[in-house]
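Justification of resources, computational component.

The compute hours requested in this renewal are based largely on the per-chain cost of generating structure records like the one below. Each record pairs the submitted sequence with a full C-alpha cell output. That output is archived, and it is also reused by downstream analysis tasks.
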Amino acid sequence: LTTLCLRPLDDWVWNRVAEGAKPAGMGAFYVAWFGKERGISKEYVENWFLACCRNNPFMRAWRDVYVAGWEHASSRHDYKDGPLFKNIDLSHISIEEHRTWLTMHICFKKLIDEDAELRRFWAEDMVLLRADDGAMRWMADLDLDMHEDSALRWVYSTDAAWADEQITSAPMLKFVGSAANALQWQPPEHLVARDNCITRVLAAALPCSPSESAHF
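The structure output for this chain reads:
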C-alpha cells in the first residue's frame, strides 16, 4: 500500500491534463518542502503518480535521459555521478543518501535546468499538485522514523473525524517508507475489517466494500 486514489481522476486531474481548449498534457505532485526555495518552489516533482497524454514531449525526454544515465552507471549508487549530471544543481535533494535512489528526480532536474522549452512547460503548463498539504498532509503529526506511529494512527485508532479529513482534503494519499511498511506488515483483516481509520478511508475509496476487497 503506497498510493491510494480517493476520487476519480476525471474529477481532479485528467480534465486539466487532457481536455479543454488548451490541455496541459501532464500532471504530477511536487513536494514544496524539498524545493530549492524551501516550502515554495516546485523542482521536486514526484514520480509515484503521473497523468500524461500519449507522446507528451516532456515525458519522452524524461524517459530518454533516465535510460541514457544508465549507460554510465553500474547501480543507483553511482548513477548521479555520471557525466550527464556533472553540472546539475541537486541542492534541493538536500539529503545526500536520497540522491542514490531518486534517480528520476535527478533526471527531471537536468531537463528543467538545460532545456528551455521543457523548463517553460514545467513552469507554465504542467499541472503541479502540492503534496505537502494534500497527498502527504496526513504525515504532518507523525514521526516517520517510528514505524509504529503510522500503524497506531491508521490501524489502532478510531478517530473518525481525522479519517474523514483525509478523505476530503486530498484526492490521493501517499504512504512513504516506514509509513508504507507499517501498513504492509498488517494482516488484511486489520486494513479492511476493523473499526479504524484505514478501513474508513478504504471504504470511501474502493468501488466495493472493504470486506469484498479483502484479497487485494
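The chain is about 40% helix and 10% strand. The radius of gyration is 19 Å.
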